[in-house]
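Risk register update: the risk of archive-format incompatibility is retired. Evidence:
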Amino acid sequence: MSQRVYISDCEGPISKNDNAFELSSKLIPNGDKFFSVISKYDDVQADVIERSGYKAGDTLKLILPFFKSYGATDEMMEEFSSKNILLVPGADETLKNISEIMPSFIVSTSYEHYIRSLCKKIDFPFENTYSTRLRIDDYEITKNEKDRLRKIVEEVIGMPMIEIPESNLLRDFTSVDKSNIIRLDKIFWEEIPQMKIGRVLEEVNPVGGYEKANAVQDIVKRLNSSLDNVIYVGDSITDVPAFRLVGDGGGLTVSFNGNNYAVREAEIGATSQNAAFLEFIAQLFQQGSKEEVIKSLNIFPDKVLVLNSENRKEFAEYSSKFRKTVRGESIGELG
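Archived output:
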């Protein structure tokens, strides 16, 4: 049997943070509301409209002009990240133990400032991580742009939260939501690109969506392995393409305290306040086939499920609620 490979998202399976949300809350007045609106817009672009060239997690580049307008620097982002890391109980020990039995990697949409800080905290090799590369100090912004962007922040904060209909079809959105989506389109794809700071939207490439799948492919290539040897753990919309890639390739996919997007795609759904369960799954996968892992999980009645068409919807509702008890209501709501 070839060597297994463990690949995990960071925020969710390893830490309770949403670093970009927390940075937004620190830098921007009412930044929590601002980030939440943009995050929901991100869900619409990635999963409803499927905008060409857009991927889940591109929120992390959309918010950068606003971060810059409120004085964000690389030093500030790294210092803030290092002081505010909140680990899922057992996550550091779990990742350490798994790393001893198989090569382990973190694939995260988070900014590299946060992932570098987390690696230092848990003594994990930074070279075994993929994250959003950013040097925000390299981007210039004019005073007029700062003023304009701050006015846009006030406008966005005044928008009601976009509600995605169950049909997931744009035609079924409310007229208010459609209007606000059109307005956000204009802001991000017409107004900001004309600004000097607009260069950041062209050059920063968040590791979300298909970039997470690309990272998985790169890891497999680096190790001269194959997708059927991969166990991938995720919890959000940014993990969907990686889930599909690994699942289609015969690997094992696990939603850990996942939202609806994650549960929709994963083979195994797990909910827990402690990350230690992931070590148990990794050990099973190391010792046997994927089918044997799935069979072994039948001993868990509630918090772990082998997902299928009959239980997926109900478990998605349960897992979405449970994740809020682990990560907090505001972060738990994010896609």
